[in-house]
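Q: Convert this sequence to C-alpha cells.
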Amino acid sequence: MNKTTRSYDSSNRKLQAQKNRESVLRVSRDLFQKQGFKKTSIEQIAKESGLAKPTVYALFKSKEGILLAIIDSSISKESFEDLVRQACRGETAKERFDITAKMCREIYEAESTNLASLKNFAGISPEVKNLENQMEERRYLRQEKSVKQMKNMGLIKSNISVQKARDVIWALTGRDFYRMLVTDRGWSPSEYETWVSKTLLTTLGNEENHEGEPL
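A:
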C-alpha cells in the first residue's frame, strides 16, 4: 500500500468517525430530552444510531462522556476561541469583564437550548454530579491565565490576590447563577450578562483603570 492510499484510507476513517460521532450526539440529545438521561441506555443509543455498542464506547467512553460532548458542542470551538482572544486583547477591566460576561451568556444560553437546561441533569446520579464537578474544575483552570494577566496589567484591585480574584470570577460566572436568575427567576440573558459584567467590575476592577458604573 503506497503513501497516497494510506493517506486516503486514514482520511476516510476520520470522516466516518466524525459522522458516527455526530450521529450519536444527535440521537442521544433527542433521547435525553424525550425520556431523560437516567432512562436512556448506551444500548439504545447505539441501536438508534445504527452502530455497534463497542463503537459508541470507543468514541465517548461512557454515557456521561456523551453528555459532556453534547454540552461542549453547544457553542462551536471557533466561537469560543474567538471570545477568548477578544478577552485577552482587552486593555481595561471593563473590556475584559464585558467579554467574560458575554462568553458566559452565549455558552449557557446555547446549553439551555441544546439540553433544555442542565438543571434537568444535575444530581441525577453520582456519575453526572462528578461530571459537573469536572466541568467546573476545567472552567476554573481555564480562567487562570486570564486572571494572572489582568493582575499583572493592574486591572485587578491591589488588595485582591490572584487566588481571590480567580475564586470570585469562577463563582460569579458559574452555571448556578445563570440557572437561578434566567431559568428560575425569569431574567433575560441580556440582563444576566449586564449583571455579571457590572458585578465583576465593581467587585474586582481597579478603580484607576475604569470608570465606575452603578449596578
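The mean pLDDT is 83.
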